[in-house]
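Example record

One chain of 295 residues, shown exactly as stored in the release files.
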Amino acid sequence: MLAELFAVLAPVIIVSGIGYAWARSGQHYPTEFIARLVLTIGTPSLVLATLSRADIDPQAFASMALGCVLVTACMGLFGALFSRLFRQQWKVLVPAFLFPNTGNMGLPISLYAFGEHGLALAVAFFLTLSIMQFSVGIALSGNAASIKDLLRNPIMLSLLLALPMIFMDLQLPRWLANTVGLLGGMTIPLMLLTLGVSLASIRLHHLGSGLVLGALRIFLGAAVGWGVGAAMGLQPLTHAVLVVQSAMPVAVFNYLFAVRANRSPEQVASLVMCSTLLAIVWLPLILAWWMPRVN
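Predicted structure tokens for this chain:
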């Protein structure tokens, strides 16, 4: 089991560690360009390639999307509660609880732990959360988000293209499937490298509250994911991916939104860093429970 856990987590830690070391050594990394490349080309291609290859049950896809909505709603309530208990700004803490790092960390971990089918389910969670992140998340950051802007988002366009493949059992032409497969293959490595670079640029402040609130975010995320999955009667693989995605640390996007809105970016940075470090310890325990029950 230890060897299996190491095989799952080692690529994530090593590749993000390379990004961290690259940035700390003073080497140039075009973060803005890479982020735009991943957002506009890489991630939509990964979505199409994954969902076209995986033999995913439409009901499982819909269940994962519903589970994501329920988990996110519960975590938003916890964020509002803790903002009152810890006397924090709710516009800082609620987004941190709402939006975990289901892309940079959640997708590769789901792939290495549960295979292509697990990745497809993780993509369903990621897509659903992205809809909320690029609408509710942007609104919470102080910027207006319109339906028109949301529909123009490349990730949303890839979802609209992917839904007929899932629910109508359609297939991409071979030339297009090969193309999006090639382009999608760059996404997870670039996501992990960018995660490491982003973490290297964060300076820790509010360390005590960051550790406490970061721990609450990942522990409660796993608990809520388990509870929602049990209440919905999900199959073991779907349930496992829901728990893993729900237990991810605070997304780096929250820090970028906080910087843009000038809303306590140092505190959000602490939540991102502390929850990420704690997740490296917490996620092996979750995977040790679920992997034998799924594989």
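Notes: Residues 121 and 282 are 21 Å apart (CA to CA).
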